[in-house]
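Provenance

Sequences were taken from public entries as deposited. Structures were produced by running a predictor on each sequence independently, with no templates supplied. The record for Transketolase from Megasphaera intestinihominis is shown for reference.
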Amino acid sequence: MSTIDTTCVNAIRVLSADAIQKANSGHPGLPLGAAPIAYELWANHMNHNAKDPKWANRDRFILSAGHGSMLLYSLLHFYGYGLTMDDIKQFRQDGSLTPGHPEYGHTTGVEATTGPLGAGLGMAVGMAMAEAHLAAIFNKPGYPVVDHYTFALCGDGCLMEGISSEAFSLAGTLGLSKLIVLYDSNNISIEGNTDIAFTENVQARMAAFGFQTITVEDGTDLDAIGKAIEEAKADKEHPSFITIKTQIGYGCPAKQGSAAAHGSPLGEENIVAMKENLGWPKPQETFYIPDEVYAHYAELSQKAGAAEADWQKLFADYAAKFPDMKAKWDAFHSDVDAQALLNDEDFWAYEDKPQATRSLSGTMINRLKDIMPQLFGGSADLAPSNKTEMKGEGFFSKTDYSGRNVHFGVRELAMGAITNGLALHGGIRPYAGTFFVFSDYMKPMIRLAALMSLPTTYVLTHDSIGVGEDGPTHEPIEQLAMLRSLPNVNVFRPADATETAAGWYLAATSQKTPTALVLTRQNLPQLAGSSKEALKGAYVIADANKAVPDAIIMASGSEVELAVSAKDELAKEGVDVRVVSMPCMELFEQQDEAYKEQVLPKAVRARVAVEAASDFGWGKYVGLDGTTVSMKSFGASAPAGVLFKKFGFTTENVVAAVKKVVK
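Predicted structure for Transketolase:
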């Protein structure tokens, strides 16, 4: 190791420790211990360019152990990604570019929002899948225009979380050889030595998943780390897992190797002692970085930029030789024409017969696959039930990465993270399907998608007690409320074919918001009043005769038909009711006050909401004088028709509820 290499590694340690101390908050252990790993990777093995952070063929780096964020911020600062020393000094402060955990879209150079341990590993698998898929589609002999690696740095906590096993099991099955995982193995967690809860042979587990496994015994040996990375790159059949044995808090005499270094500042005296121990100049001075460090990182950054220059020339030649592929590339990396799709009669066409919205969704997927070549997705072993398969498009596999359908296996949590990784990579528009009740397994990753403003799509079928005989374990009750509580998620529960098309239109054209499509197992009729107005979140699907109706019935999904039926019965008794279909509360809340008043006039206080789920969230629409026809308990195991009657989802019960609020 050269003197300048040693100094540059120590610069990461010193800058991280000083920033965490100034904030009086943070995790110094990982940056101090893993600094040699990060330095060697970024300096000698990773293609990236600070002057073009979104370069399509860059290698991706995911800090799955996001609590060690100062490691990443130090790299971004030294390589010139736009983080200034003032930004570093504002670590963990309000509005800063250096939040406690890395945030995608907030800080240039951050590839994914990582905080929940292990989530970054699932996203890395998604990125590696995206690279493999796009390479299979676009690369030509002599023109590897898609040819990059995904690197993920993780710790013990990431590997304790079950998501790592789900994701890596699939990665091994798929033979994602461009995925390289760097394991910062220091045997320390917050509560102490990992042996108290984590004694498994991690390498054996990874080998069982189908990974090449490599071990570096000394985490300060740059040459050994570099050799391991090159060995990983040389394996063209397996993803690679490199265990690098480190000491948490390396260099700090008082805390090195102990849990005390993990999650709290080292203390000013300990930092001075660390700097002296590392031979750092001016140890008493905070945030001091020698000029030669910046000069060396500038040289490394220039070398990294040269790799992109070579690729840009290759791509220009490729575009000239294969203009049809260049046009396809542009299509993959462009948004759908929203106006054209809105006016596309074939997209909105439907057969006038009862159909389950899950089946109608399957029809829409197969219409969109020809409009959006970047559409890519599948289900958690449920494609025949979720209707998520794109016909004739093949399945993504180790032997055919060009397939557009994905067998995610029974891995909902990892599927959610992988879907995020696919979207983050670029050139892919992903969707993922499962039964609605199992969105519980996906929720943490849906939350991250919302945080990152990713336009991912979730196909969530079997949406209510209409699941029937499978019983309460499979009948979603509280999941609508759960998803609706998430900021920046559009939860769309359509009532028929037109509304299902609207839901997919919303998903296909979304720029920064995930879409959850909540779909029925049972057949529903095509409703006479349904329209593209569903894109406003709520609209009048069947109006009263009076200018001011006696009451308003609101419903979503399968219960809209029930609301219309109740309206017809009430009319016979002289009660004039308006029916509002509300497939998406979030979209309705985005409308102006005039439209909201037009649909739900404040003067009409007699309101009933009908939904075969928990009524949590309907209060703001029914008000103090209204009521709900909803689920007050878990479901049961019986045919769907029996259950709807058992739990009060009948015309008679809705009529009675309306009469009660009218009085």
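The longest helix spans residues 291-321.
The domain at 3-306 is CATH 3.40.50.970 (Rossmann fold).
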